[in-house]
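hey so u asked for the seq, here:
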Amino acid sequence: MEHTKKETVNNTNEQQIAMRVSSVSIFVNIALSLFKLLAGIFAHSGAMISDAIHSASDVISTVVVIVGVNMANKKSDKEHQYGHERLECVSSILLAGLLTVTGVGIGISGIQKVISGTSGEDLMIPGVLALIAAVVSLVVKEWMFWYTRAAAKKINSGALMADAWHHRSDALSSIGAFVGILGARIGYPILDPVASVVICLFIVKASVDIFRDAIDKMVDRSCDEETIAHMREVIQEVTGVIRIDVLRTRLFGSKMYVDIEIAADDSITLKEAHAIAEKVHRSVERNFEDVKHCMVHVNPASEVWK
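ran it, structure tokens below
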């Protein structure tokens, strides 16, 4: 009962944080997308229009994040007794796919313009407004990256972290747009569509990273070595634990599942052995907030377990 109550409170807090961050993200991205699109049209910059499309895709990705986090934080039920955390990984995979499609579309458009430019076709020279839009976008998107990243770390949300890196990829693409637009204005107009191709590469790289992280969490990958080493220290500090025979961890969405086998004195009673196991259980859950389930088994110290 106590664990279920704690899970409900944590899920509610996580949803509130995710909703607040996502609402800010949607508002900022809509405003920024419109500004960059208008700047790209009026300043005749294909790179800025590509950057605007990238920002517009952020709105869709944020909606995906909201849906994913809300579904992942649903309480365990009869059909899903271990919870729904992996649905957040599904959300991240969908986001990675969306990013890839967006990036490839921008890249194809940029390559077509590069080919046109090299074949002798005159390319439009972008105006100053496009440069201003690139600087504004860089500042705003970098701020959004740090803002969303902090929230993602606070609630350990893979989908929210994916959204943060989406913001960072947008900031990087704005740098590419700025360089391309500036180069076009000083006499190299082909650099504007080249910037679109560079933006494509940034977006695809971000999507691959998001996809790999989501897959790792879906295939029961173990926790990192630093976390496991710290967990061993916590377990060994519990009075009555002679040694650790087995320690297995697996990621389940944004949460961790832990299986532990410890060795205790052969001569103690079943009640005393249970008390030691309970102390280990509580100590692990107290020191590692992301642990959703911890199973502890006690072995007799006289027997060596492999």
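The chain is about 70% helix and 10% strand. The mean pLDDT is 79.
lmk if thats what u needed
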